[in-house]
Amino acid sequence: MSCSTPLRIGLTGGIGSGKSTVSAMLAALGATIVDTDAIARQLTLAGGAAIEPLRLAFGDALIGADGALDRARMRELVFSDPVAKRRLETILHPLIGAETERQARDATTPTVVFDVPLLVESGRWRERVDKVLVVDCLESTQVERVVARSGWAADAVRAVIAQQATRTARRAAADAVIFNDGIDLTELERQVRSVWQQWHR
User: Fold this and answer.
1) Long-range contacts of range 164-168, CB-CB < 8 Å, 24 or more positions apart?
2) How would you write the pLDDT of the chain (201 residues) with one tens digit per residue?
3) Are 188 and 25 in contact (CB under 8 A)?
4) DSSP per residue over 138-168, as a string?
5) Are the C-beta atoms of 187 and 21 separated by less than 8 Å?
6) How far apart are CA 118 and CA 155, in angstroms?
7) In this structure, are residues 95 and 43 in contact, taking their beta carbons and an 8 Å threshold?
8) Contact of 39 with 100, CB cutoff 8 Å
9) CA gap 22, 184 in Å, rounded
10) Is 55 exposed, middle or buried (0-12, 13-18, 19+ CB in 10 A)?
11) Inter-axis angle of helices 82-106 and 71-80, to 10 degrees?
C-alpha cells in the first residue's frame, strides 16, 4: 500500500481495556497514531482553541486556576446533564475532527491508526477508516485496572462503562478483536503483530 493512500485503522476499546498499550505497539510497528483523546486534552489546555468557547458556554467555574478546563468537574457535569454533554460535544467535536484530519494528512507512513475511545458511539467513524480493531476484556477486568491505575472508586468506573458502547456493540463493529484478558504483554504483542501482518498482506 503506498504512502499516498495509507491504510486507515480505527482503534477502540472500553476504558481499562488496554487500548493505549495496543496503540503503542502499533506505533512500534510503524503506524502513525492520531490520538483523539490527546487532541482533546491539547484543545482544553490553557490557551487551547476550545478554552474560550467553553468559557462562554459553561462559565468560569469550569476553567481551572491554571487556565485549563477543569476536566474532573466537567466529567461530573456531563455525566449528570445530557444537555451539557451535547453542548460540550458541539464545541469539541468539530475542533477534534479538524485536527485529526490535519494530523492524518501530514502522516508519512503507510498506516495511520486513529485511536478513538468512542469510535462505535460516534456513528461517524466506520466510513472514515478501512479497518476497525477493538481491544476487549471483561468488565470486571476494566474496573480492576482503572481502580489500580487511577485510584477511582469502582462505582465511578462502572458509571463510565455504562455510558460507553457495550462490549457486544463494539465487537459487532470490529474487523478484528484482541481479547486482552488473562494474557501477558508478550502474548498481547503477538496478537497485535498477527493482525498487523494480516492487514498488510
Assistant:
1) 164/14, 164/15, 164/117, 164/118, 164/121, 165/14, 165/118, 165/120, 165/121, 167/14, 167/136, 167/139
2) 444 689 999 999 999 999 999 999 999 999 999 999 999 999 999 999 999 999 999 999 999 999 999 998 998 898 889 899 999 999 999 999 999 999 999 999 999 999 999 899 888 888 899 999 999 999 999 999 999 999 899 999 998 899 899 999 999 999 999 999 999 999 999 999 999 999 998
3) yes
4) -HHHHHHHHHHHH---HHHHHHHHHHSPPHH
5) no
6) 20
7) yes
8) yes
9) 12
10) middle
11) 120
What residues pair up with 112 in beta bridges, in sequence order?
8, 32
Residue 157 grid cell:
468506573
Cell of 171: 465487537
Query: Would you state the cell numbers that stand for residue 96, as one nine-digit string?
Result: 477534534
